[in-house]
Protein backbone atom coordinates (compact mmCIF):
# COMPACT_ATOMS: atom_id res chain seq x y z
CA UNK A 1 0.00 0.00 0.00
CA UNK A 2 1.29 3.42 -0.97
CA UNK A 3 1.64 5.95 1.84
CA UNK A 4 -1.57 7.74 2.65
CA UNK A 5 -2.14 11.38 1.82
CA UNK A 6 -4.43 13.75 3.61
CA UNK A 7 -7.37 15.00 1.58
CA UNK A 8 -9.76 17.70 2.74
CA UNK A 9 -12.88 18.85 1.02
CA UNK A 10 -16.20 20.40 1.92
CA UNK A 11 -18.88 17.79 1.37
CA UNK A 12 -22.44 19.07 1.52
CA UNK A 13 -21.26 22.05 3.54
CA UNK A 14 -19.30 20.01 6.08
CA UNK A 15 -15.49 19.90 6.18
CA UNK A 16 -14.23 16.33 5.61
CA UNK A 17 -10.59 15.34 6.08
CA UNK A 18 -9.34 11.78 5.67
CA UNK A 19 -6.02 10.02 5.14
CA UNK A 20 -6.37 7.90 2.01
CA UNK A 21 -4.19 6.32 -0.66
CA UNK A 22 -3.50 8.65 -3.62
CA UNK A 23 -5.32 6.22 -5.93
CA UNK A 24 -8.58 6.63 -3.99
CA UNK A 25 -11.33 7.66 -6.38
CA UNK A 26 -13.63 10.49 -5.42
CA UNK A 27 -16.59 8.10 -5.31
CA UNK A 28 -14.69 5.85 -2.87
CA UNK A 29 -13.78 8.86 -0.75
CA UNK A 30 -17.44 9.88 -0.56
CA UNK A 31 -18.89 6.41 0.00
CA UNK A 32 -16.20 4.75 2.11
CA UNK A 33 -14.40 7.57 3.94
CA UNK A 34 -17.36 9.95 4.34
CA UNK A 35 -20.03 7.22 4.56
CA UNK A 36 -22.26 8.89 1.96
CA UNK A 37 -23.66 5.97 -0.02
CA UNK A 38 -26.32 7.90 -1.93
CA UNK A 39 -23.80 8.22 -4.77
CA UNK A 40 -23.80 4.93 -6.69
CA UNK A 41 -21.11 3.09 -8.62
CA UNK A 42 -22.75 1.85 -11.80
CA UNK A 43 -20.51 0.99 -14.74
CA UNK A 44 -17.27 2.16 -13.10
CA UNK A 45 -16.06 3.21 -16.57
CA UNK A 46 -17.29 6.81 -16.88
CA UNK A 47 -20.17 5.75 -19.13
CA UNK A 48 -23.33 5.52 -17.05
CA UNK A 49 -23.30 8.63 -14.84
CA UNK A 50 -24.73 6.92 -11.73
CA UNK A 51 -21.80 8.33 -9.73
CA UNK A 52 -22.42 11.95 -10.79
CA UNK A 53 -21.80 14.56 -8.07
CA UNK A 54 -21.14 18.28 -8.18
CA UNK A 55 -17.59 19.55 -7.72
CA UNK A 56 -17.58 23.31 -7.26
CA UNK A 57 -21.10 23.32 -8.69
CA UNK A 58 -20.39 21.36 -11.87
CA UNK A 59 -21.37 17.76 -12.59
CA UNK A 60 -18.53 15.23 -12.72
CA UNK A 61 -18.37 11.44 -12.76
CA UNK A 62 -16.86 10.65 -9.39
CA UNK A 63 -15.66 7.19 -10.50
CA UNK A 64 -13.28 8.88 -12.94
CA UNK A 65 -11.79 11.51 -10.68
CA UNK A 66 -9.27 11.04 -7.90
CA UNK A 67 -10.14 12.24 -4.44
CA UNK A 68 -6.86 14.14 -4.66
CA UNK A 69 -8.19 16.10 -7.64
CA UNK A 70 -11.10 17.30 -5.47
CA UNK A 71 -8.83 18.28 -2.57
CA UNK A 72 -9.97 21.69 -1.25
CA UNK A 73 -13.10 21.62 -3.46
CA UNK A 74 -16.76 21.94 -2.48
CA UNK A 75 -18.58 18.71 -3.30
CA UNK A 76 -22.34 18.21 -3.32
CA UNK A 77 -23.90 14.75 -3.29
CA UNK A 78 -27.55 13.72 -3.39
CA UNK A 79 -27.58 13.78 0.43
CA UNK A 80 -26.60 17.46 0.42
CA UNK A 81 -29.12 18.39 -2.23
CA UNK A 82 -32.07 17.27 -0.14
CA UNK A 83 -30.76 18.42 3.22
CA UNK A 84 -33.01 21.46 3.52
CA UNK A 85 -36.14 20.04 1.91
CA UNK A 86 -36.34 18.64 -1.58
CA UNK A 87 -34.61 20.43 -4.43
CA UNK A 88 -37.03 21.32 -7.27
CA UNK A 89 -35.39 18.62 -9.41
CA UNK A 90 -36.03 15.98 -6.71
CA UNK A 91 -39.60 17.24 -6.34
CA UNK A 92 -40.14 16.96 -10.08
CA UNK A 93 -38.69 13.42 -10.28
CA UNK A 94 -41.16 12.49 -7.50
CA UNK A 95 -44.18 14.14 -9.09
CA UNK A 96 -43.49 13.00 -12.67
CA UNK A 97 -42.30 9.54 -11.60
CA UNK A 98 -38.91 10.05 -13.24
CA UNK A 99 -37.57 6.71 -12.01
CA UNK A 100 -38.29 3.04 -11.70
CA UNK A 101 -35.62 1.01 -9.90
CA UNK A 102 -33.89 4.16 -8.67
CA UNK A 103 -30.28 3.11 -9.18
CA UNK A 104 -29.50 5.84 -11.71
CA UNK A 105 -31.61 8.45 -9.94
CA UNK A 106 -29.04 10.12 -7.69
CA UNK A 107 -26.69 10.61 -10.62
CA UNK A 108 -29.52 11.62 -12.93
CA UNK A 109 -30.72 14.26 -10.44
CA UNK A 110 -27.23 15.67 -9.87
CA UNK A 111 -26.57 15.82 -13.62
CA UNK A 112 -29.93 17.58 -14.11
CA UNK A 113 -29.17 20.14 -11.38
CA UNK A 114 -25.86 21.04 -13.05
CA UNK A 115 -27.45 21.07 -16.50
CA UNK A 116 -30.28 23.43 -15.44
CA UNK A 117 -27.73 25.74 -13.83
CA UNK A 118 -26.06 26.06 -17.25
CA UNK A 119 -29.24 26.02 -19.30
CA UNK A 120 -32.25 27.27 -17.25
CA UNK A 121 -34.66 27.30 -20.20
CA UNK A 122 -34.03 24.06 -22.08
CA UNK A 123 -36.01 22.47 -24.86
CA UNK A 124 -36.80 18.76 -24.73
CA UNK A 125 -33.89 18.12 -27.11
CA UNK A 126 -31.58 20.16 -24.86
CA UNK A 127 -32.57 17.98 -21.90
CA UNK A 128 -31.94 14.76 -23.80
CA UNK A 129 -28.51 15.99 -24.95
CA UNK A 130 -27.74 17.45 -21.52
CA UNK A 131 -28.32 14.08 -19.88
CA UNK A 132 -26.54 12.00 -22.54
CA UNK A 133 -23.92 11.01 -19.97
CA UNK A 134 -26.49 9.31 -17.75
CA UNK A 135 -27.95 5.93 -18.60
CA UNK A 136 -31.25 4.55 -17.29
CA UNK A 137 -32.15 0.94 -18.07
CA UNK A 138 -35.75 1.13 -16.79
CA UNK A 139 -37.65 4.21 -17.82
CA UNK A 140 -36.87 4.76 -21.46
CA UNK A 141 -36.08 8.31 -20.31
CA UNK A 142 -39.57 9.66 -21.06
CA UNK A 143 -40.55 10.61 -17.50
CA UNK A 144 -37.02 11.73 -16.66
CA UNK A 145 -37.14 14.26 -19.48
CA UNK A 146 -40.63 15.35 -18.42
CA UNK A 147 -39.39 15.76 -14.84
CA UNK A 148 -36.40 17.90 -15.82
CA UNK A 149 -38.57 20.15 -18.01
CA UNK A 150 -41.03 20.44 -15.12
CA UNK A 151 -38.21 21.32 -12.71
CA UNK A 152 -37.01 24.01 -15.12
CA UNK A 153 -40.47 25.56 -15.11
CA UNK A 154 -40.71 25.37 -11.32
CA UNK A 155 -37.28 26.93 -10.82
CA UNK A 156 -38.08 29.71 -13.27
CA UNK A 157 -41.39 30.43 -11.52
CA UNK A 158 -39.64 30.52 -8.14
CA UNK A 159 -37.19 33.21 -9.26
CA UNK B 1 -11.86 -0.93 -10.52
CA UNK B 2 -9.06 0.86 -8.72
CA UNK B 3 -5.82 2.07 -10.30
CA UNK B 4 -2.55 0.46 -9.25
CA UNK B 5 -0.77 2.39 -6.53
CA UNK B 6 1.22 5.49 -7.43
CA UNK B 7 2.88 8.46 -5.82
CA UNK B 8 0.95 11.66 -6.35
CA UNK B 9 2.70 14.96 -7.04
CA UNK B 10 0.62 18.12 -7.38
CA UNK B 11 2.41 20.66 -9.56
CA UNK B 12 1.95 24.26 -8.48
CA UNK B 13 3.52 25.59 -11.67
CA UNK B 14 4.70 24.42 -15.09
CA UNK B 15 8.25 24.55 -13.74
CA UNK B 16 7.36 22.21 -10.88
CA UNK B 17 5.72 19.82 -13.32
CA UNK B 18 8.81 19.79 -15.55
CA UNK B 19 11.09 19.24 -12.55
CA UNK B 20 8.97 16.26 -11.48
CA UNK B 21 9.17 14.80 -15.01
CA UNK B 22 12.94 15.14 -15.01
CA UNK B 23 13.19 13.58 -11.56
CA UNK B 24 10.94 10.58 -12.23
CA UNK B 25 11.59 10.00 -15.95
CA UNK B 26 9.55 7.32 -17.69
CA UNK B 27 7.82 6.30 -14.45
CA UNK B 28 5.90 9.58 -14.36
CA UNK B 29 2.77 10.52 -16.22
CA UNK B 30 1.09 13.92 -16.40
CA UNK B 31 -2.52 14.10 -15.22
CA UNK B 32 -4.70 16.93 -16.53
CA UNK B 33 -8.46 16.32 -16.31
CA UNK B 34 -7.96 12.58 -16.25
CA UNK B 35 -10.83 11.76 -18.62
CA UNK B 36 -8.60 9.54 -20.79
CA UNK B 37 -5.81 8.55 -18.40
CA UNK B 38 -7.86 7.52 -15.36
CA UNK B 39 -10.01 4.98 -17.26
CA UNK B 40 -6.80 3.42 -18.62
CA UNK B 41 -5.31 3.33 -15.13
CA UNK B 42 -8.45 1.74 -13.70
CA UNK B 43 -8.17 -1.00 -16.34
CA UNK B 44 -4.44 -1.26 -15.47
CA UNK B 45 -3.61 -0.59 -19.11
CA UNK B 46 -1.58 2.37 -17.83
CA UNK B 47 0.44 1.83 -14.66
CA UNK B 48 2.44 4.98 -13.94
CA UNK B 49 4.22 4.89 -10.59
CA UNK B 50 4.23 8.68 -10.27
CA UNK B 51 1.29 10.86 -11.26
CA UNK B 52 2.10 14.54 -11.75
CA UNK B 53 -1.16 16.48 -11.46
CA UNK B 54 -1.09 19.62 -13.62
CA UNK B 55 -4.86 20.08 -13.33
CA UNK B 56 -4.53 23.19 -11.18
CA UNK B 57 -2.26 25.21 -13.46
CA UNK B 58 -4.91 27.84 -14.05
CA UNK B 59 -2.38 30.08 -15.82
CA UNK B 60 -2.61 27.55 -18.68
CA UNK B 61 -6.38 28.01 -18.93
CA UNK B 62 -7.24 30.64 -21.52
CA UNK B 63 -8.44 31.44 -25.04
CA UNK B 64 -6.61 34.53 -26.29
CA UNK B 65 -6.49 36.54 -29.49
CA UNK B 66 -2.92 36.18 -30.70
CA UNK B 67 -3.28 38.54 -33.68
CA UNK B 68 -3.22 36.24 -36.69
CA UNK B 69 -4.18 33.21 -34.57
CA UNK B 70 -5.92 32.14 -31.38
CA UNK B 71 -3.81 30.91 -28.49
CA UNK B 72 -5.39 28.33 -26.19
CA UNK B 73 -3.88 27.23 -22.90
CA UNK B 74 -3.33 23.47 -22.78
CA UNK B 75 -5.42 23.09 -19.62
CA UNK B 76 -8.47 24.84 -21.05
CA UNK B 77 -11.44 22.55 -20.48
CA UNK B 78 -13.81 21.44 -23.23
CA UNK B 79 -16.54 23.30 -21.34
CA UNK B 80 -14.49 26.52 -21.54
CA UNK B 81 -14.05 26.03 -25.29
CA UNK B 82 -17.74 25.25 -25.71
CA UNK B 83 -18.73 28.54 -24.03
CA UNK B 84 -15.99 30.80 -25.45
CA UNK B 85 -17.47 33.63 -27.51
CA UNK B 86 -14.05 34.45 -28.93
CA UNK B 87 -13.68 30.88 -30.17
CA UNK B 88 -17.23 30.85 -31.58
CA UNK B 89 -16.45 33.99 -33.58
CA UNK B 90 -12.92 33.25 -34.73
CA UNK B 91 -12.70 29.46 -34.89
CA UNK B 92 -16.23 28.12 -34.73
CA UNK B 93 -15.24 24.62 -35.78
CA UNK B 94 -13.16 24.05 -32.66
CA UNK B 95 -15.92 25.37 -30.41
CA UNK B 96 -18.51 23.16 -32.10
CA UNK B 97 -16.46 19.98 -31.91
CA UNK B 98 -15.48 20.64 -28.28
CA UNK B 99 -19.24 20.62 -27.58
CA UNK B 100 -19.42 17.11 -29.12
CA UNK B 101 -16.80 15.54 -26.83
CA UNK B 102 -18.18 12.96 -24.40
CA UNK B 103 -20.93 14.39 -22.22
CA UNK B 104 -21.39 17.36 -19.87
CA UNK B 105 -19.57 15.64 -17.02
CA UNK B 106 -16.60 14.78 -19.24
CA UNK B 107 -16.48 18.31 -20.67
CA UNK B 108 -16.42 19.77 -17.16
CA UNK B 109 -13.13 17.95 -16.49
CA UNK B 110 -11.43 17.13 -19.80
CA UNK B 111 -8.89 19.53 -21.27
CA UNK B 112 -7.78 20.33 -24.82
CA UNK B 113 -4.13 19.69 -24.00
CA UNK B 114 -4.95 16.41 -22.29
CA UNK B 115 -6.90 15.18 -25.29
CA UNK B 116 -4.10 16.19 -27.66
CA UNK B 117 -1.27 14.71 -25.58
CA UNK B 118 -3.17 11.44 -25.14
CA UNK B 119 -3.08 10.97 -28.92
CA UNK B 120 -6.14 8.76 -29.26
CA UNK B 121 -7.22 8.44 -32.92
CA UNK B 122 -10.83 8.05 -31.71
CA UNK B 123 -10.78 11.50 -30.06
CA UNK B 124 -12.65 14.32 -31.74
CA UNK B 125 -10.37 17.28 -31.08
CA UNK B 126 -7.06 16.00 -32.48
CA UNK B 127 -8.72 15.60 -35.90
CA UNK B 128 -9.91 19.21 -35.82
CA UNK B 129 -6.46 20.45 -34.88
CA UNK B 130 -4.97 18.40 -37.71
CA UNK B 131 -7.41 19.93 -40.19
CA UNK B 132 -6.62 23.40 -38.85
CA UNK B 133 -2.84 22.83 -39.09
CA UNK B 134 -2.61 23.84 -35.44
CA UNK B 135 0.70 24.57 -33.77
CA UNK B 136 1.56 22.94 -30.45
CA UNK B 137 3.85 24.69 -27.97
CA UNK B 138 5.78 22.35 -25.67
CA UNK B 139 8.04 23.25 -22.78
CA UNK B 140 10.88 20.99 -21.71
CA UNK B 141 14.08 21.13 -19.68
CA UNK B 142 15.91 22.83 -22.56
CA UNK B 143 13.23 25.40 -23.29
CA UNK B 144 10.23 25.82 -25.53
CA UNK B 145 9.61 24.44 -29.01
CA UNK B 146 6.77 24.49 -31.51
CA UNK B 147 5.44 21.44 -33.31
CA UNK B 148 3.16 21.38 -36.35
CA UNK B 149 0.03 19.25 -36.26
CA UNK B 150 1.11 17.27 -39.35
CA UNK B 151 4.13 15.90 -37.45
CA UNK B 152 2.55 15.70 -34.00
CA UNK B 153 0.45 12.54 -33.99
CA UNK B 154 2.95 9.75 -34.53
CA UNK B 155 1.08 6.56 -33.62
CA UNK B 156 -1.65 4.99 -31.51
CA UNK B 157 -1.60 6.96 -28.22
CA UNK B 158 1.77 8.37 -29.30
CA UNK B 159 2.78 11.94 -30.08
CA UNK B 160 5.96 13.84 -30.83
CA UNK B 161 6.03 15.15 -27.25
CA UNK B 162 9.10 13.97 -25.34
CA UNK B 163 8.51 12.27 -21.97
CA UNK B 164 9.99 15.29 -20.19
CA UNK B 165 7.91 17.88 -22.06
CA UNK B 166 4.71 19.65 -21.04
CA UNK B 167 2.29 20.80 -23.72
CA UNK B 168 1.48 24.40 -22.76
CA UNK B 169 -0.40 26.00 -25.64
CA UNK B 170 -2.31 25.19 -28.81
CA UNK B 171 -2.45 27.79 -31.60
CA UNK B 172 -5.16 27.66 -34.22
CA UNK B 173 -5.82 29.89 -37.25
CA UNK B 174 -8.75 32.28 -37.32
CA UNK B 175 -10.93 30.04 -39.46
CA UNK B 176 -14.12 32.05 -38.97
CA UNK B 177 -17.50 31.34 -37.44
CA UNK B 178 -18.91 28.95 -40.04
CA UNK B 179 -18.19 26.79 -43.09
CA UNK B 180 -17.65 23.51 -41.26
CA UNK B 181 -19.43 20.34 -40.22
CA UNK B 182 -18.53 17.37 -38.05
CA UNK B 183 -20.28 14.06 -38.50
CA UNK B 184 -19.76 11.61 -35.66
CA UNK B 185 -21.13 8.09 -35.70
CA UNK B 186 -21.48 6.17 -32.44
CA UNK B 187 -23.77 3.67 -30.78
CA UNK B 188 -24.42 5.40 -27.47
CA UNK B 189 -24.86 9.17 -27.37
CA UNK B 190 -21.76 10.03 -25.36
CA UNK B 191 -19.43 7.41 -26.82
CA UNK B 192 -16.22 7.72 -28.77
CA UNK B 193 -16.70 8.02 -32.51
CA UNK B 194 -16.78 4.68 -34.32
CA UNK B 195 -15.87 6.95 -37.24
CA UNK B 196 -15.93 10.74 -37.44
CA UNK B 197 -15.50 13.05 -40.42
CA UNK B 198 -14.78 16.75 -40.28
CA UNK B 199 -15.00 19.22 -43.15
CA UNK B 200 -13.82 22.80 -42.69
CA UNK B 201 -13.53 25.47 -45.34
CA UNK B 202 -11.31 28.49 -44.79
CA UNK B 203 -8.64 30.41 -46.69
CA UNK B 204 -10.42 29.25 -49.83
CA UNK B 205 -9.73 25.54 -49.34
CA UNK B 206 -11.67 22.69 -47.80
CA UNK B 207 -9.88 20.44 -45.36
CA UNK B 208 -11.19 17.02 -44.37
CA UNK B 209 -10.03 15.04 -41.35
CA UNK B 210 -11.04 11.60 -40.14
CA UNK B 211 -11.47 10.16 -36.64
CA UNK B 212 -10.87 6.47 -35.87
CA UNK B 213 -9.69 5.53 -39.35
CA UNK B 214 -6.16 4.51 -38.38
CA UNK B 215 -3.57 4.73 -35.62
CA UNK B 216 -3.66 8.54 -35.71
CA UNK B 217 -6.14 11.20 -36.78
CA UNK B 218 -5.87 11.51 -40.56
CA UNK B 219 -6.30 14.11 -43.29
CA UNK B 220 -8.38 12.76 -46.17
CA UNK B 221 -5.94 14.06 -48.80
CA UNK B 222 -7.67 12.27 -51.66
CA UNK B 223 -10.92 14.06 -50.87
CA UNK B 224 -9.17 17.41 -50.52
CA UNK B 225 -7.41 16.96 -53.89
CA UNK B 226 -10.64 15.98 -55.61
CA UNK B 227 -12.44 19.03 -54.21
CA UNK B 228 -9.58 21.33 -55.26
CA UNK B 229 -9.88 19.87 -58.77
CA UNK B 230 -13.58 20.73 -58.84
CA UNK B 231 -15.20 17.41 -57.94
CA UNK B 232 -18.65 17.37 -56.35
CA UNK B 233 -18.96 16.65 -52.63
CA UNK B 234 -20.42 13.27 -53.45
CA UNK B 235 -17.64 12.29 -55.87
CA UNK B 236 -14.87 13.63 -53.63
CA UNK B 237 -16.24 11.78 -50.59
CA UNK B 238 -15.87 8.53 -52.52
CA UNK B 239 -12.13 8.83 -51.91
CA UNK B 240 -12.46 9.24 -48.12
CA UNK B 241 -11.11 5.80 -47.25
CA UNK B 242 -8.02 6.11 -49.48
CA UNK B 243 -4.82 5.67 -47.51
CA UNK B 244 -6.62 4.81 -44.29
CA UNK B 245 -5.98 1.72 -42.16
CA UNK B 246 -9.03 1.38 -39.94
CA UNK B 247 -9.03 -1.27 -37.27
CA UNK B 248 -11.75 -3.86 -36.67
CA UNK B 249 -13.37 -4.20 -33.27
CA UNK B 250 -16.64 -5.11 -31.60
CA UNK B 251 -18.29 -2.01 -33.06
CA UNK B 252 -17.26 -2.25 -36.70
CA UNK B 253 -15.26 -4.17 -39.28
CA UNK B 254 -12.59 -2.30 -41.22
CA UNK B 255 -14.81 -2.42 -44.32
CA UNK B 256 -17.70 -0.91 -42.41
CA UNK B 257 -15.46 1.89 -41.14
CA UNK B 258 -14.39 2.62 -44.74
CA UNK B 259 -18.06 2.79 -45.72
CA UNK B 260 -18.79 5.11 -42.81
CA UNK B 261 -15.87 7.36 -43.73
CA UNK B 262 -17.29 7.85 -47.24
CA UNK B 263 -20.84 8.46 -46.07
CA UNK B 264 -19.93 10.75 -43.17
CA UNK B 265 -17.48 12.72 -45.32
CA UNK B 266 -20.18 13.30 -47.94
CA UNK B 267 -22.60 14.49 -45.26
CA UNK B 268 -20.00 16.74 -43.67
CA UNK B 269 -19.05 18.28 -47.02
CA UNK B 270 -22.67 18.87 -47.94
CA UNK B 271 -23.39 20.52 -44.57
CA UNK B 272 -20.18 22.54 -44.52
CA UNK B 273 -20.78 24.23 -47.84
CA UNK B 274 -24.57 24.51 -47.50
Describe the structure in your own words.
The complex is a heterodimer of chains A (159) and B (274). Chain A is of the alpha+beta class. Chain A has helices at 26-33, 78-81, 88-95, 105-118, 124-130, 142-158, and strands at residues 5-11, 14-20, 52-55, 58-61, 74-76. Chain A has two domains: 5-81, Roll (Ubiquitin-like (UB roll)), CATH 3.10.20; 88-158, DNA polymerase, domain 1. In chain A, helix 3 packs across helix 6. Chain B is an alpha+beta fold and 274 residues long. Chain B has two domains: 1-173, Uridine Diphospho-n-acetylenolpyruvylglucosamine Reductase, domain 3 (2-Layer Sandwich); 182-273, 2-Layer Sandwich (Enolase-like, domain 1). In chain B, helix 5 packs antiparallel against helix 8. The longest helix of chain B is centred in the last third of the chain and has 20 residues, at 254-273. At the A-B interface, strand 4 and helix 4 of A face strand 1, helix 2 and helix 6 of B.
Provide the succession of SSEs of chain B: EHEHEEEHHHHHHEEHEEEEEEEHHH
The CATH superfamily title of the largest domain in chain A: Beta-grasp domain
Whole-number count of domains of chain A: 2
How much is the radius of gyration of chain B in Å?
Answer: 18 Å
Strand-residue fraction of chain B?
15-25%
Taking the sheet with the most strands of chain B, its summary is:
5 strands, antiparallel
Model regions low in confidence, pLDDT < 50 over at least 5 residues of chain A: none
CATH architecture of the largest domain in chain B: 2-Layer Sandwich
> Cα distance, first to last residue of chain B?
47 Å
- The CATH architecture of the largest domain in chain A comes to Roll
Beta strand % of chain A: 15-25%
Q: Give me the count of strands of chain B.
A: 14
Task: Write down the overall mean pLDDT of chain B.
Answer: 96
Structural classification of chain B? alpha+beta
Low-confidence sequence ranges of chain B: none
Helix percent of chain B reads 25-40%
Mean pLDDT of chain A: 96
Q: Which of globular, elongated, flat, extended, rod-shaped describes the shape of chain B?
A: globular
Report the structural category of chain A.
Answer: alpha+beta
Q: What is the CATH topology of the largest domain in chain A?
A: Ubiquitin-like (UB roll)
Amino acid sequence: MMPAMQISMTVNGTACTHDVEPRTLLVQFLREACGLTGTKVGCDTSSCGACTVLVDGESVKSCTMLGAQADCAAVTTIEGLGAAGWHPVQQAFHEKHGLQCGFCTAGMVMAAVSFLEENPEPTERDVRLGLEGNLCRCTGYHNIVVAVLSAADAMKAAK
Amino acid sequence: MIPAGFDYVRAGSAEEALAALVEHGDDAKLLAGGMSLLPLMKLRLAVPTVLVDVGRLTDLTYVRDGGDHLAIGALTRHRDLETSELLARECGVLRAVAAEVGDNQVRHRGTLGGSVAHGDPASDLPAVLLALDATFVARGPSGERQLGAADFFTGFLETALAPDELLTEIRVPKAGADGFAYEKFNRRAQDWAIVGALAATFDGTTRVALVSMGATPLRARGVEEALAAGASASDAAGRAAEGTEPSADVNATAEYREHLARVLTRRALESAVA
